[in-house]
Amino acid sequence: MSKLKVGVIGCGSIAKYRHLPEYAANEHVEIVAVCDIIEDRVNEFAEEYNAKAYTDYKKLLADDSIDVISVCLPNYLHAPASIAASNAGKHVLVEKPMATSREEAEAMIEAAKESGKKLMIGHNQRFVSSHEKAKEIIASGEIGKVYSFRTAFGHPGPEGWSVDGRDSWFFNKEEAFIGAMGDLGVHKTDLMRYILGEEFVEVASFVETNAKEDTDIDDNAVCILKSETGIIGTLAASWAYTAGQDNSTVIYGEKAIIRLEDDPNYSLIVQYTNGEVVKYELGAIQTNDEGGQHTSHVIDSFVSAIVNDTDVSVPGEEGMKSLQVVLSALESNETKKIVKI
């Protein structure tokens, strides 16, 4: 079988550390095109990956030989670029949050359906070994009824990660739409839906801008979530964890407590009510600190679904449900009311 031809739109940090090297490492694909509005940047990647450089993604999409597109653009461009790629008959992998509104997300799902091509959302936390194991443990009934949880994702801010530093689109409301909640919070709404295997039905939140100056984008958010069976928990998303990263989740069940990414040595610890403690040494979670040396598994999963013509692991519908929790949290903060999802 000939290799799938890939085009990557947007050559910022997520493309540099995740999409491009992971496509390059996959035997089923060949990177043939890269696109970025900054010419020097795109030329550098074109040279590195022996690909054609574009500064206009519409011109890239006009190339009929390209099978697969990764959309690694600022949030406000996720929907238009994904829809255009689907309409051009390409399979699409888009970064999270998939869109800036429910209407956009629905339009993206519809465009992919009409094209008969795949749409996947890059929610990499689902592929973390400890998270997959926790889902399995909960689904097996081993910890009994789940009562509560707390989950957090925070770091000092995107200026340390983004290729453009403090001038990054992350701090421009028109381009980013949401700050820490879109960048980090949506990871955790998706993760908790995945691990618990349930939808959230209500949310209350405080979403603030109190850590970053000269921006109107949120940098600190705390949400209270309630699931359909009555599990309640907190979700924190922050760009103000100034001395390091927190990517931990704790799940409180009837027969045990599960601690995920909460210990420097063990990515999963299960503390049973009978006093027994089981510690799992699983693969480390991917962080931005090491320049993405751990694979995210997102690209491999996406490529595998195309090659084998199977369902993608994080379809548009899943991305939309995770986005909806974030949109409802923003509404709760504005209205100062608990919002039904």
Explain how this protein is built.
- The protein is α/β, with parallel strands linked by helices and 341 residues long.
- The chain has 2 domains: 4-123 and 296-314, Rossmann fold; 125-287 and 322-340, 2-Layer Sandwich (Dihydrodipicolinate Reductase, domain 2).
- The chain is 33% helix and 24% strand.
- It is built from 10 helices and 15 strands.
- A 9-stranded mixed β-sheet has the order 14-13-12-11-7-10-9-8-15.
CATH class of the largest domain: Alpha Beta
What is the helix/strand order?
Answer: EHEHEHEHEHEHEHHEEEEEEEHHE
Poorly predicted tracts of residues: none
Q: What is the 3D form?
A: globular
Number of strands: 15
Radius of gyration: 20 Å
Total domains, how many? 2
**Which architecture of the largest domain per CATH?**
2-Layer Sandwich
Overall pLDDT level: 95
Q: What portion of residues is helical?
A: 25-40%
Strand content: 15-25%
State the helix count. 10
Main sheet record? 9 strands, mixed
